[in-house]
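Treating backbone geometry as a discrete language has practical consequences that deserve illustration. The amino acid sequence and the backbone structure tokens for this protein are reproduced below.
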Amino acid sequence: MAMLAIRPTPSNPSSSSSSSPSSSKTCTPHLLPARINHNGPIHNTQRYWAPSVDEKGTHHVHFRGRHLHGTPLPIPPGYTGAVLLTTEKALPRVPKPNHSVMHQLDSDGNGDGEPMYAHERCVDEEGNPADDEGEHMGEEEEEVKMAQEVGRFEELVVWGHGGVVGEGDEFVRGIREWVGFAEGMHCDDEEEEKVGEGRVEGIDLDMKDR
């Protein structure tokens, strides 16, 4: 899975300043137990999608003649849900410094001469390249793709066909269990009871089978 760099939508489309506040629309993503052969906006959503909510909080809708049952999942406190549009544009790589600066001795021998550059290398006592340097020389950095934030959400709805989804559903567990488990793995002992800030993995606009 490729890494993504999220770019918020500026409030002024003509402004590319990173200090511009985000104007992403608030929405509610719906995860369907089906594949839709369309990737893009739909202008008349009420014609195809008009869910209702019963007294238990379960969502109901008939989609192409199929009765679907929806379970709302709120985003955990301290997190932000983001709808992302992935692009083929790669995040520019920042070149790593690979040299140090040394000054040549001038006629007075005080080191004020013209600077010259020497590549940094790790060597052993005999002047041979260190083992770890050779291991990393052939490694390439993973490419990071740019993703445009097109919406934000505070909850999503997971739909099941023939009934509500169970507690073992991957999306239900991802929101209710795995987020807290990940926090516990990465928090220090003093921060175990604190809610860390972060963001839920963005939902790609490409809908996939579940």
